[in-house]
């Protein structure tokens, strides 16, 4: 597991201010404006010069507009009263902070405003006094509250503008949108004013670093050198104040630092003032600050000296509110006192002992002092990138229309300069601007709070988004090609050189919906904050702060969703214009033009919007977006979420969709809260409290000896989620894919056939999660990848419901890892053929595999020529077959005796292989078929579950009922290498080209291949016997395709005896079971009594090796296994005691991926099903194992595990092999049981395991002991679907198996896995099932030997024969009635563990055999009989007596997963 550190809340604590090395930020060398006013405006007045009024003393009269036009407020009136506006500057009273115009009779006076109703000479100050019919108009103003600080914001300038003269509002000025001239004559005049911080006697220096903690840089994130400059963006100042001036409140600001890799670091800082000693000033500095008189250099009394300082925290998380509270606490702690604990203790305590909130403990309550606390909540879980954006702040400061105008500016990459007098607002709005264009990502310079020292970036010839303090414009002349956004006045200033596109250039309907949503949100904000901001915030805080915070979070989410919907509509359909890299990539493979059809995308848009889209496609935003979509990156989950949003929206609608694109995941909803106590105060020697001795005159220099180490590191470890292992090999699902899969499962849980396919899709998803581990251990990587590709093809062909694209994604990643780009292209084509559009993550892995892998040579001539030659040879072989048959018939006719019959000619092997499944020997053999070079063929059949006796298709055209993983046949398990009757071509047509090449020169015809043929025949004859027979399902053997496995024994038999042995029909066996018990066992040996149904064509046996061994080890199945594992999912309901079988368990599962329960079909209760496991260890000491390989003495009789002895029995005495003799006794046997998990639950657990432990852990034996539930469930599903894996072999290194004294080769011991349909062990007092009683009466040994044929039960042999006769005559209702009457007899058990349906079905399988039982037809007949009986007895009574058939959902689950299980 990875040793990565958990997320840290705070990385650094920084103190910035004036240092000895700080350089002055001189204004002499800068192009700055005229001298700015040093004092704010404190009064305004109106004078009437026509009445003889003069400008009052100290006032300034406004006589002209900004462009020099004369200003007469009543110039259009006949009497022309000549009214003018005057203002006065000073510091004798609080400054004015706002101006307005009041229409009497129309407007209500605003609270806090005063109406200027008289002139200084006591006349009416009505600005429209021309006559009684004119609107009475007065000026209004609002003054700052007492007491005011030295740097209080106030009105610093006033001007008048006439729009009719071409004048506009000056930059940084606020305009009062009420005309001062309301008469019918004269031009319109508007009042404008500017709010700024009027400073005087100030020196500005570049800020430096005064202190930091920790002192050493961390390896992952060293402290940037520019942090002090961002803490004090307007510089570290020395200011001279009047002696009685009060300190202003600290100013909170935030900033964002962007690293070279694009990761963001968030800073939160507060700025405050401290006293500065005069002794550190030079004479020049004292003169500039007004501390010395200019003439005689004498000290000026009544002045104080202050400096500006800042404290800051740096973090990777935008917890701005939490950091503001912490910094304010630290600042108040430094100016109060004395204290027992030093300031450094609180700083180190917060940085070390406050953990990052985790999903387990989402709330962290930090008690900093008895009166100060803060609540730290886990960030909202969102697929969008983490950001400090506030869309509500954007709306409050700019409004909906300006917000949309800025959206156009950002999408077209303009130069944007955002400025405000509030530095904390700049970061929130700047982050909102770069977040509103998601999924596009801003690629140009981005500084939401730019320091004055870095203002040269405004002259850069590239687009940028820069935020700066509005006082910058008092010092410098800004560039002309920049778009200015004034957050204080809600205005956007555009220069003539740089004009924005109109919002009308945006797509009309999406833009209309966006504007409507923003206007609605803005109205709701106005209702929330109806009064002034400070008062409203305080009122909300006192009334219901929690509800207000939740409401604001909801509105924030809706605003972000509105912009997200617009971007989804604007970029809809973009994925269809992505160009996958199909051929070998050119050097310019990463060019946007080669990755995206730009012109095709542009033509797909409406012509009216081509100008906007044309500019968008040329931006760096869009180019980077195409690269992110085309190649794997860390933004893949975000882009995948955007793709789901594109699928949800409908661009033609003029209202938003009902389903929200984003849902609020409130982290405060968690119940667990971690409480962090304040630092403990030390006690004295006698337990008394120590005196308070820490007092500070200003913020102190941090002392390293007082910064304590972590006090309780366990708290932080407990609150962290386990980090992801970097070695995890498989691309995992994103949160959005998990939600989609959950919704799909909920949808299909009520549809029976789709629920089965949904479960099956999750099972295949489990195997593909394991696939990297399997490929890593496979000796032939390409063959393993081709195997996975064929599995995908079969899954698509049979419409398996895939919950996501992880299967394709993993295979594409492995293709890139092992250098197979051609196979990756084939996987992409299969996705498109299946109608699946790859999302961003899958598409990125595809392009990465194609671009970074080494492509094969461009000329494929040699391979194509060999393929053509192969087809010619195979075609010639097919033409020669009739000639050979004619020659054989002629030879047989000439060799026949004159008066007798000619012996029958030997038949091809493929014709006789289906006689085991009930086919007649007269059936026409299937014609061989040519196979394309390099392809893998699937043996299979077209019949369903019950159609085992119908005609079969050729091997290469068999279509199994459900997909399964294919595998080429190992050379040792194919048919005989040589054959005189031409049967080699019959078999070889269904094999792969590369596999036939492995056979080597042994393929020559003739009798030289007798020994291999006899060995294979003996092996298959053992498989037909219920005795000591090796399984085709275990972990060390390989399954044969139907044609090869059925053909080989009969061919060997025919060459020795000339004709096949006579067999009795199933009907004869059924009617006289006591006469032929051995024959009965022979017929049923391929059904419930065998490890694998050889004739089944379901997903579990479609030519897939059921082992974890390489194909070459297939012959090892002739030897006894080292370990045999029996698995059963049959579980007992705790409520009613009934046995619930596998398909019924699957049908009872829910779509919840955290629910372990299933539902009992009989009582309806929920219970947890279990996997029962029996592990039998057959491993012998090395000496015994060597002796066992020798032939046993003749006196011991035939032993089925001995190959040499079985060769003599495979044809001469087949009945001796059809019993169920005692198998070898295991050295050790153990039974365990673990929860049987739904594939949905198991996948979630497996993903968590791979994320925490890494993919390599799945190949380690520790998996068996440390995670047994996951291990055994994976073994069950992989064996059930016939998917290869190395999991069974891991059992050899676990605690369940005794280790051997000597180390053995890795492929010598094999593990056999058998999947059982019924229970592993019977209940102590339970009644034996009918299929066991049938075998006991037929003298066929069974696996469960604790039952006896004649016990305390009413089920005699005559009863079972009667049941079978009724079923055979299609009178299933009579069989059920007979069953119910027998159960009602005295001495019969009241309730059976198995349902009557299950008893009859298992009895049929035991008596007739799997190949002669049509389960689908039986289900229909049983359901019809049940409905017939339900009319007389009632369904509830039948359910109580366990007569009901399986539900349609259970039947579909059995069909999907296959019924190849034994009892």
Please give a handful of descriptors for the protein shown.
7-stranded antiparallel beta sheet, elongated, 13% strand, alpha+beta, 5-stranded mixed beta sheet, 35% helix, 1463 residues
Task: Describe this protein's structure.
- The longest helix is centred in the middle third of the chain and has 38 residues.
- The strands form 9 sheets. Strands 1, 11, 12, 13, 14, 15 and 16 form a 7-stranded antiparallel beta sheet that branches. This protein has a 5-stranded mixed beta sheet with strand order 20-21-19-22-23, covered by helices on one side. A 4-stranded mixed beta sheet has the order 31-30-25-32, covered by helices on one side.
- The protein is built from 42 helices and 32 strands.
- About 21% of the residues have low confidence.
- The protein is α+β, with helices and mostly antiparallel strands and 1463 residues long.
User: Which percent bin holds the helix content?
Assistant: 25-40%
- Helices, by number, come to 42
**Average pLDDT value?**
74
Which structural class best describes the helix and strand composition?
alpha+beta
- Termini distance? 41 Å
Which parts are unreliable, with pLDDT below 50 for 5 consecutive residues or more?
Answer: 28-34, 531-543, 666-670, 711-730, 900-1118, 1183-1222
Radius of gyration: 44 Å
The major sheet is characterized as: 7 strands, antiparallel
Strand coverage percent: 5-15%
Instruction: Using the alpha-carbon principal axes, give the shape.
Output: elongated
Tell me the total number of β-strands. 32
């Amino acid at each position: 597991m990875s040793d990565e550190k958990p997320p840290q809340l705070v990385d650094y604590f920084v103190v910035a201010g004036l240092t000895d090395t700080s350089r002055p930020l001189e204004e002499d060398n800068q192009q700055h404006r005229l001298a700015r006013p040093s004092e704010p405006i404190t009064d305004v007045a109106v004078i009437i010069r026509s009445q003889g009024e003069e400008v009052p003393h100290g006032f300034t009269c406004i006589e002209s507009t900004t462009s020099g036009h004369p200003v007469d407020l009543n110039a259009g009136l006949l009497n022309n009263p000549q009214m003018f506006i005057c203002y006065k500057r000073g510091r004798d009273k609080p400054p004015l902070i706002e101006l307005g115009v009041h229409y009497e009779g129309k407007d209500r006076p605003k609270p806090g405003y005063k109406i200027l109703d008289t002139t200084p000479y006591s006349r009416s100050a009505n600005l429209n006094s021309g006559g009684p019919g004119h609107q009475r108009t007065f000026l209004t103003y609002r003054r700052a509250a007492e007491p005011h600080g030295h740097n209080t914001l106030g009105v610093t300038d006033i001007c008048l503008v006439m729009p009719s003269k071409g004048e506009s509002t000056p930059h940084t000025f606020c305009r009062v949108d009420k005309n001062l001239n309301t008469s019918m004559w004269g031009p319109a005049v508007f009042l404008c004013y500017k709010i700024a911080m009027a400073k005087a006697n100030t020196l500005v220096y570049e800020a430096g670093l005064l202190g930091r903690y920790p002192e050493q840089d961390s390896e992952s994130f060293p402290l940037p050198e520019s942090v002090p400059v961002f803490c004090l963006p307007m510089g570290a100042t020395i200011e001279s104040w009047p002696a009685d001036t009060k300190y202003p409140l600290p100013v909170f600001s935030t900033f964002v630092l962007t690293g070279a890799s694009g990761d963001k670091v968030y800073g939160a800082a507060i700025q405050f003032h401290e006293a500065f000693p005069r002794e550190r000033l030079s004479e020049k500095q004292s003169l500039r600050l007004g501390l010395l008189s200019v003439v005689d250099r004498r000290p000026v009394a009544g002045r104080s000296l202050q400096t500006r300082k800042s404290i800051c925290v740096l973090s990777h998380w935008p917890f701005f509110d939490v950091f503001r509270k912490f910094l304010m606490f630290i600042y108040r702690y430094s100016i109060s006192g004395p204290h027992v604990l030093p300031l450094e203790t609180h700083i180190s305590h917060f940085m070390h002992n406050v953990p990052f909130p985790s999903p387990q403990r989402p709330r962290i309550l930090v008690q900093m002092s008895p009166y100060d606390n803060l609540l730290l909540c886990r960030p909202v879980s969102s697929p969008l990138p983490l950001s400090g954006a506030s869309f509500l702040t954007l709306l409050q400061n700019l409004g909906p229309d300006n917000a949309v105008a800025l959206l156009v500016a950002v999408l077209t990459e303009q130069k944007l300069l955002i400025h405000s007098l509030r530095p904390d607002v700049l970061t929130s709005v700047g982050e909102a601007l770069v977040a509103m264009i998601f999924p596009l990502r801003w690629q140009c310079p981005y500084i939401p709070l730019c320091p004055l020292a870095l203002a040269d970036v405004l002259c850069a010839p590239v687009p940028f988004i820069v935020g700066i303090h509005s006082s910058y414009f008092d010092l410098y002349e800004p560039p002309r090609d920049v778009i200015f956004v004034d957050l204080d006045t809600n205005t956007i200033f555009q220069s003539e050189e740089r004009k924005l596109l109109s919002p009308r250039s945006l797509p009309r309907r999406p833009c209309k919906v966006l504007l409507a949503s923003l206007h609605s949100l803005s109205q709701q904000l106005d209702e929330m904050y109806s009064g002034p901001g400070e008062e409203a915030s305080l009122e909300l805080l006192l009334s219901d702060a929690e509800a207000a915070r939740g409401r604001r979070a909801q509105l924030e989410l809706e605003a972000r969703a509105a912009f997200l919907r617009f971007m989804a509509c604007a970029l809809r359909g973009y994925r269809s214009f992505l160009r996958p890299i199909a051929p070998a990539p050119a050097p310019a493979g990463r060019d946007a033009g080669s990755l995206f059809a730009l012109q095709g995308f542009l033509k797909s848009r409406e012509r009216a919007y081509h100008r906007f889209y044309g500019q968008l496609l040329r931006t760096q935003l869009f180019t980077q977006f195409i690269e992110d979509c085309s190649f794997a990156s860390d933004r893949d989950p975000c882009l995948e979420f955007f793709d789901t949003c594109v699928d949800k929206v409908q661009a033609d609608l003029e209202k938003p969709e009902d389903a929200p694109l984003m849902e609020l995941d409130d982290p405060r909803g968690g119940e667990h809260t971690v409480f962090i106590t304040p630092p403990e105060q030390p006690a004295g020697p006698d337990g008394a409290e120590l005196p308070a001795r820490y007092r500070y005159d200003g913020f102190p220099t941090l002392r390293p000896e007082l910064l304590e180490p972590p006090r309780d590191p366990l708290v932080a470890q407990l609150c962290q989620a386990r980090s992801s292992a970097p070695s995890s090999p498989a691309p995992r699902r994103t949160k959005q894919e998990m939600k989609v899969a959950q919704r799909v499962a909920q949808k299909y849980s009520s549809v029976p056939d789709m629920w089965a396919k949904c479960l099956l899709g999750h099972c295949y998803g489990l195997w593909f999660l394991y696939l990297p581990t399997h490929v890593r251990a496979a000796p032939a990587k390409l063959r393993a990848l081709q195997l996975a590709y064929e599995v995908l093809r079969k899954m698509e062909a049979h419409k398996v419901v895939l919950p996501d694209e992880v299967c394709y994604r993993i295979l594409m990643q492995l293709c890139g890892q092992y250098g197979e780009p051609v196979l990756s292209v084939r996987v992409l084509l299969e996705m498109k053929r299946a109608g699946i559009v790859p999302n961003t993550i899958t598409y990125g892995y595809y392009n990465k595999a194609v671009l970074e892998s080494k492509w094969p040579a461009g000329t494929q001539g040699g391979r194509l020529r060999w393929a053509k030659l192969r087809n010619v040879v195979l075609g010639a072989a097919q033409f020669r077959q009739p000639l050979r048959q004619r020659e054989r018939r002629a030879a047989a006719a000439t060799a026949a005796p004159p008066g007798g019959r000619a012996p029958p000619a030997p038949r091809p092997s493929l014709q006789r292989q289906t006689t085991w499944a009930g086919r007649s020997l007269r059936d026409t053999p299937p014609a061989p078929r040519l196979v394309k070079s390099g392809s893998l063929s699937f043996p299979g059949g077209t019949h369903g579950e019950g159609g085992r006796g119908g005609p079969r298709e050729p091997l290469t055209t068999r279509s199994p009922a459900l997909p399964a993983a294919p595998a080429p046949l190992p050379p040792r398990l194919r048919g005989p290498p040589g054959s005189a009757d031409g049967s080699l071509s019959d078999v070889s047509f269904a094999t792969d080209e590369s596999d036939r090449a492995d056979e080597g020169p042994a393929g020559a015809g003739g009798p030289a291949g007798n020994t291999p043929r006899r060995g294979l025949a003996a092996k298959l004859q053992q498989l037909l016997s219920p005795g000591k027979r090796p399984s085709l399902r275990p972990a060390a053997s390989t399954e044969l395709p139907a044609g090869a496995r059925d053909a080989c024994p009969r061919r060997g038999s025919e060459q020795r005896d000339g004709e096949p042995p006579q067999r009795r029909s199933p009907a004869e066996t059924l009617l006289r079971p006591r006469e032929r018990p051995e024959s009965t066992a022979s017929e049923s040996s391929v059904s419930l009594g065998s490890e694998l149904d050889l004739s089944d064509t379901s997903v579990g046996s479609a030519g897939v090796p059921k082992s974890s061994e390489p194909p070459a080890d297939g012959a090892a199945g002739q030897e006894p296994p080292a370990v045999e594992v029996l698995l059963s999912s049959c579980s007992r309901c705790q409520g009613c005691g009934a046995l619930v079988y596998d398909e019924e368990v699957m049908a009872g599962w829910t779509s919840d991926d955290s629910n372990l329960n299933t539902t009992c079909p009989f009582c309806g209760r929920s219970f947890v099903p279990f996997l029962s496991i029996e592990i039998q260890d057959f491993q012998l000491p090395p000496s015994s194992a060597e002796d066992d390989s020798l032939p046993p003495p003749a006196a011991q009789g035939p032993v089925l595990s001995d190959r040499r002895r079985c060769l003599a029995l495979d044809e001469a005495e087949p009945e001796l092999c059809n019993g169920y003799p005692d198998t070898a006794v295991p050295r050790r046997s153990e039974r365990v049981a673990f929860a049987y998990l739904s594939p949905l639950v198991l996948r979630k657990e497996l993903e968590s395991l791979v994320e925490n432990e890494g993919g390599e852990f799945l190949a380690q034996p520790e998996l068996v002991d440390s995670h047994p539930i996951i291990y055994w469930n994976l073994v069950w599903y992989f064996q059930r679907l016939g998917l290869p894996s190395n999991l069974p072999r891991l059992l050899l290194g676990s605690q369940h198996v005794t280790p051997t004294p000597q180390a053995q080769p890795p492929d010598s011991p094999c593990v056999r896995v058998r999947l059982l349909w019924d229970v592993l062990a019977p209940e102590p007092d339970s009644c034996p099932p009918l299929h066991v009683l049938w075998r006991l009466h037929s003298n066929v040994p069974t696996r469960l030997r604790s039952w006896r044929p004649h016990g305390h039960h009413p089920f005699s042999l005559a009863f079972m024969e009667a049941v079978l006769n009724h079923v055979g005559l299609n009178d299933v209702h009579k069989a059920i009635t007979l069953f119910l009457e027998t159960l009602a007899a005295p001495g019969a058990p009241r309730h059976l563990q198995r349902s009557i349906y299950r008893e009859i079905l298992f009895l049929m399988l035991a008596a007739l055999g799997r190949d002669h039982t049509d389960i689908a037809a039986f289900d229909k007949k049983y359901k019809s009989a049940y409905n017939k009986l339900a009319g007389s007895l009632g369904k509830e009574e039948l359910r109580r007596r366990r007569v009901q058939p399986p539900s349609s959902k259970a039947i579909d689950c059995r069909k999907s997963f296959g019924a190849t299980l034994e009892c």
